[in-house]
Amino acid sequence: MSTDLATALTEGPPLVLDGGLSNQLASAGHDLSDELWSARLLAEAPEAITEAHLAYYRAGADVAITASYQATFEGFARRGIDHAEAARLLTSSVELARAAARRAEATRPLWVAASAGPYGAMLADGSEYRGRYGLTRTELERFHRPRLEVLAEAAPDILALETIPDTDEAAALLHAVRGLGIPAWLSYTIDGNHTRAGQPLEAAFALAADAEEIIAVGVNCCAPEDVPRAVETAARITGKPVVAYPNSGETWNARTRSWDNAPTLTPALSTTGARLVGGCCRVGPETITAIARALGRT
To answer: What class of enzyme is it (predicted)?
Structure first.
């Protein structure tokens, strides 16, 4: 267990999380219109991933999330990548973030969170925003455990169980992380004060209240306006540090295949009481710098 990170989440000023990895990769000119999304670049352009992490560390992030959100044995297999190579790519996601931390030459501690996205991310059909895949908790645990074992073996500081849409998958993940020797945070994607599948956040966060492996809980990939109430609920129900990294506030227009509305995420996110604050989709280094400044981190 990374005692340093666990301590930092409870003592001193809040920490800064990075922004959207895919956002930074797309800004650098990489095409992510693929079922593997950013995970494809683990094989095809690993240096691009390191550069994206480096941009966020230099922007003020204390913690970077790896490019393993959509990296699964099943997803890689569909592209003809065998189990051994898939495991190597999962491991490399942690190593690339570590390399970026070294290159950042920061005077502050820098940490790596190994991303484990939901089952729906592997399907690449948007179902991570709905949940309820028709699988049992045992089947979901069987899906998640092998990937988590490989990521844990790569020795990240923490596992990021992120963008989880419902309590069934959360319960499966809480079983899947047992005995790995690496702490984790559990982060739901939400709509208002409910998970994307419609469960009240009080019940969703309660699942993690007594889970020893879970050292923080929170929300991500949601509207910025939903964060303050969710942070309060998470802290009240679990008594654990809270992570919050919403989207920019823009909305995707599937008809025009473009983003509508102006961003609503501002440095005011730093005032919600969350202990780890950053951004998700459409949030770039400039916003992370603004959040870091608001927290007095730069």
So the answer is: transferase
Question: Based on the structure, what is the number of domains in the chain?
Answer: 1
- The number of CA neighbours under 13 Å toward the Cβ of 274 is 30
- Give the domain CATH number at 218: 3.20.20.330
The answer to whether 280 is annotated as binding is yes
The single residue listed with the structure tokens 């910025």 is: 224
221 has binding-site annotation: yes
Record the tokens describing residue 202, joined without a space.
């009080």
> Each residue's pLDDT tens digit in the chain (298 positions)?
344 899 999 999 999 999 999 889 988 888 777 777 778 899 899 999 999 999 999 999 999 999 999 999 999 999 899 999 999 999 999 999 999 999 999 999 999 999 999 999 999 888 888 999 999 999 999 999 999 999 999 999 999 999 999 999 999 999 999 999 999 999 999 999 999 999 999 999 999 999 999 999 999 999 999 999 999 999 999 999 999 999 999 987 757 756 788 899 999 999 999 999 999 999 999 999 999 999 988 7
Residue 281 marked as a ligand binder: yes
Domain extent at residue 139: 5-295
Residue with tokens 């004060």: 193
